[in-house]
Amino acid sequence: MFSLPAAAAILAAYLLGSLSFAVLISRTMGLADPRSYGSGNPGATNVLRSGNKKAALMTLLFDALKGYVPVLAVVLFGARWGLDPSVAAYVGLAAFVGHLWPVFFRFQGGKGVATAAGALLGLNPALGGAVLLVWLAVAFTTRYSSLASIAAAFCAPLVQALVWGVDASLLALVGMSLLLVWRHEGNIRKLLAGTESKIGQKAAPPAAHAKASAHPPRHVHPHAPKTGHGRKGHRK
Fold first, then answer.
1. Residue 224: inside a domain, yes or no?
2. What is the pTM of this model?
3. Ramachandran class of 226: left when φ > 0, alpha when ψ lies in -120 to 50, beta otherwise
4. Does residue 214 sit within a domain?
5. How many CB atoms lie within 10 A of CB 176?
6. How would you label 223-235 residue by residue, b for 16+ Cβ within 10 Å and e otherwise?
7. Could you tell me the residue range of the domain that residue 39 belongs to?
8. How far apart (Å, rounded) are the C-alpha atoms in residues 65 and 91?
């Protein structure tokens, strides 16, 4: 199944996945680094917490495309290079892993939800659409992006196995799903504790900034009379 062209396609997909568009788009638009606020995750949901919907939408689109484009390229043109159809799934996994551990950003990446969705849509539009519907249903019902992502991750390999059967690509889907759930470990703890942020909830201001805003500095007029120990007593 694997060959030199397959290895080249997988490496190229990993490098494409390593482009952290949440960080790049935020820099371009003069926004704070998404790794510095909210959940600290460089992804569309956290960028949305900045209040900039355009930046969040662009992040979502480009993160999905870096999973979709390499997979679709293998699906459409892989046969010319002698690639097995299942290689497309591993190319999608490589792009997903690139998002999680990007070589260009010190291996500090996001959770890969949009990239995984893009890879599934490129691999099998029907499968990707079914998983997307699961995500939308859970997200609109609970307003928790993390819970929707976890539910969708569990459904992807299950739907693939039940509808299209078990093949060589299923292992890649299982690996992608397990990694995605593992990356949401912190979110799972917050969900259980009832402290998980909901979709559209803005990030809280930094503690120092919030404290300064709550207690603004007191300005003293230069000609105001001094009081207390600073005032000398009058002689009788």
1. no
2. 0.82
3. beta
4. no
5. 27
6. eeeeeeeeeeeee
7. 4-208
8. 13
Count Cβ neighbours within 10 Å for each residue of 74-94 and write b for 16 or more, e otherwise: bbeebeeeebbebbbbbbbbb
Cβ atoms of 222 and 230 closer than 8 Å: no
Given a contact cutoff of 8 angstroms between Cβ atoms, the answer to whether 96 and 176 are in contact is: yes
DSSP string, 26-37: HHHTTPPPGGGS
Domain membership of residue 217 (yes or no) is no
Query: How many domains is the chain partitioned into structurally?
Result: 1
Give me the pLDDT at residue 3, please.
Answer: 85
Do the Cβ atoms of 119 and 95 come closer than 8 Å? yes
pLDDT given at position 213:
41
Domain assignment present for residue 110? The answer is yes
- Say how far apart CA 141 and CA 163 lie, in whole Å: 26
Amino acid symbol at 52: N
Burial status of residue 190 (CB atoms within 10 A of its CB: 0-12, 13-18, 19 or more) = middle
Place of tokens 């230069």: 222
Distances (CA, A) of 183 to 22, 79, 124, 229, 234: 17, 34, 24, 59, 72
Instruction: Please identify every stretch of the chain with a pLDDT value under 50, giving residue numbers as ranges.
Output: 205-217, 219-223, 227-236
Length of the chain counted residue by residue: 236
